[in-house]
Amino acid sequence: MDTVTGASSLVRALEDAGCEVVFGIPGGAILPAYDPLLDSAKIRHVLVRHEQGAGHAASGYAQATGRVGVCVATSGPGATNLVTPLADAYMDSVPVVAITGQVNRSVIGTDAFQEADIRSICLPITKHAFQVTEPEDIPAVIAEAFALAAGGRPGPVLVDIPKDVLSATTTYTPALPVHTPKVTPAANEVRRAATLITSASRPVFYIGGGVVRAGAAAELRTLAERTGIPVVTTLMARGAFPDSHRQHLGMPGMHGTVPAVAALQQSDLLIALGTRFDDRVTGVLDLFAPNAAVIHADIDPAEISKNRKADVAIVGDCKDVLVSLIAAVRQAPVLTSWWAYLDGLRDRFPLGYDWPADGKLAPQHVIERIGTLVGPEAIYTSGVGQHQMWAAQYVGYERPGSFINSGGLGTMGFAVPAAMGAQCGVPDRAVWAIDGDGCFQMTNQELVTCALEGIPIKVAVINNGNLGMVRQWQTLFYQGRYSNTGLSTHKRVPDFVALAEALGCAGLRCEEKSEVDDVILRAMEIRDRPVVIDFVVGEDAQVWPMVAAGTGNDEIMTVRDFKPLFDEDL
Amino acid sequence: MTRHVLSMVLHNVPGALARVVVLFSSRGVDVESLSLDPTERGDVSRMDVVVGLPAGRSPDQLVKQLSRLVDVKSVVAVADQARNQIGA
Ligand SMILES: Cc1ncc(C[n+]2csc(CCOP(=O)(O)OP(=O)(O)O)c2C)c(N)n1
Ligand SMILES: [Mg+2]
């Protein structure tokens, strides 16, 4: 038991929790914590340029490493700037701990300078929120916050600490280990699932981000190969099963592949693991997989039967569930005609794109080449929009956690700070942010952080001159009336190359197909600073296939108005 | 609307009640009445809530969502009054 300040106690508690990096910005209320941070040999502080960047960086770090990501902000505006990344981490079940300074205990509730009731603001977007009222509680609260963020279904946890609690003298007593209760998958449900799997004729593994969070990719592969059952991976699960694997049909959902969507729609058994039947996957719920029985395994019992009633419900960590299923499934189902049908779709409706009529670069080609040249050992992040969907479709993912994006909340601006966080966690891997010209303008200031802190990320700006995804909807559903979606980025406002240089990065530009490989290879050779490539691409490229919002998955269109599953008798 | 009675035990800590109430509002649950009473153990309180749910929505999901909250020690739907129409 040592006599310390609350602030030192906080830093020691973070060290004891295994924290090696925090992303943050100081300010009045959190200032006491920054003093002992200067002396910590274990914790690196990365000084970001906006707290939103700190939050997404913590998320990127967490998703790249599987450890808890930590961000720090001061009270009031510092704390409220964390709201978006916390909501984002909540939706995507990412273990993040946010530490915020708060005004002194004596003035809480008086509208003091830079007071914001961040704990209340964050109620619906955090797993839990603490406000520390006694300095001696700090070690236990930090230990519990880490355990809560990582335990069960992961998610963000807020720890709000008044300034006078940080300044006070206290004693440091290391926290006792926090016990996280673990549920074992119920044996009878596993047996029922195994029976259904063995006797199904059109089964499909519907894999979600829970498999990535559980670190269960190897177990999934074992069970998939043992049973021969086709696999689809959602946006949050890209990489959980290798894209190069013969049994992989790709991503389902609004912009999924025809075989993946058809596999769900025609299925007689969905084996849904760590997934939540999100509307972007199901389309109109009543029309989703109408003839399928459902096995639903998730660590969060509240997800089971939330949107689609499960016939077999297994509560548990996906790794434990898969291990139990591997033991219980003794016989592979006969799937010859199911595969004949799916392979037929695969042959007839592969992913594909047209080159723009105006001679501009095809964005899909750029992204495909990045994936090929940079390879599957890298980590890719993306923003939100068309480029995100193309990044999900045209990069081949072979490893879990190699694609980090904002799925549930759809947060523009996620790519750059998430890449920064990921690179801090895995310095030996290449980290590429595939970003949109709109998204990039929301958070590119973190490139300053990257340049100064020696975080050599690469950013491929897919510059289509527009808020492309919104423009696509205007093309399809608003008669091409383009209200406020033009960004003028094709007029070089801003000039992304000059901007990159101004931010301390190398700036490259590519406008021709013949230059694409060269510029990617050149970027890969630059290691002393972050690199931004301005890929000037056509503005009319669209994301296909598409299930229009408000329609059923059977109405998937491979191009505008062509609905293979709906129109044809397959 | 159907009416359901939920009986909960909450940790007596600041913010626990707020979290429960926010869950009701985020999940579109009508609160008809709510009472919070101390128990003999000082560290927990008992909370009884009568909620209205859209017809066809069972209280199970709500019970599970409430159980996820760190400061909710227990929650049960005590009486299934699913057929008891509010305002009908
Ligand atoms: C913070 C935020 N604001 C608005 C939106 C709505 N939105 C979704 S995609 C998109 C366009 C993104 O543009 P860009 O980054 O250029 O990507 P593109 O679709 O052109 O590839 C917008 C505005 C959002 N998802 N997030
Ligand atoms: Mg764009």
Report on the architecture of this protein.
The complex is a heterodimer of chains A (570) and B (88). Chain A is α/β, with parallel strands linked by helices and 570 residues long. Chain A has a six-stranded parallel beta sheet, sandwiched between helices. A six-stranded parallel beta sheet of chain A has the order 15-14-16-17-19-18, sandwiched between helices. Chain A has a five-stranded parallel beta sheet with strand order 10-9-11-12-13, sandwiched between helices. The termini of chain A are far apart. Chain A folds into three domains: 171 residues, 3-Layer(aba) Sandwich (Rossmann fold), CATH 3.40.50; 163 residues, TPP-binding domain (Rossmann fold, 3-Layer(aba) Sandwich); 174 residues, Thiamin diphosphate (ThDP)-binding fold, Pyr/PP domains (Rossmann fold), CATH 3.40.50. In chain A, helix 9 crosses helix 14, helix 12 packs antiparallel against helix 15 and helix 16 crosses helix 17. Chains A and B meet through strand 6 of A and helix 1 and helix 2 of B. The site of magnesium ion (MG) has 7 residues of chain A, from helix 19. Chain A: One of its GO terms (cellular component) is acetolactate synthase complex. Chain A: Pathway: Amino-acid biosynthesis; L-isoleucine biosynthesis; L-isoleucine from 2-oxobutanoate: step 1/4; Amino-acid biosynthesis; L-valine biosynthesis; L-valine from pyruvate: step 1/4. Chain A: This is Acetolactate synthase. Chain A: Belongs to the TPP enzyme family.
CATH superfamily of the largest domain in chain A: Thiamin diphosphate (ThDP)-binding fold, Pyr/PP domains
Query: How far is the N terminus from the C terminus of chain B?
Result: 9 Å
Query: Gyration radius of chain B, to the nearest Å?
Result: 13 Å
Kindly report the average pLDDT value of chain B: 88
Major sheet of chain B: order of its strands? 2-3-1-4
Number of domains of chain A: 3
- Helix/strand/pairing class of chain B, anyone? alpha+beta
| CATH-assigned fold name of chain B | Alpha-Beta Plaits
Helicity of chain A, as a percent range: 25-40%
Strand content of chain A: 15-25%
According to CATH, what is the class of chain B? Alpha Beta
Tally of structural domains of chain B: 1
Strand order of the largest sheet of chain A: 3-2-4-5-7-6
Ligand inventory: thiamine diphosphate, magnesium ion
- What is the level-2 CATH architecture name of chain B? 2-Layer Sandwich
Mean pLDDT of chain A: 97
Instruction: State the share of residues found in helices of chain B, binned by percent.
Output: 10-25%
Enzyme class (chain B): transferase
Family (chain B): Belongs to the acetolactate synthase small subunit family.
Function (chain B): Catalyzes the conversion of 2 pyruvate molecules into acetolactate in the first common step of the biosynthetic pathway of the branched-amino acids such as leucine, isoleucine, and valine.
Keywords (chain B): Amino-acid biosynthesis, Branched-chain amino acid biosynthesis, Transferase
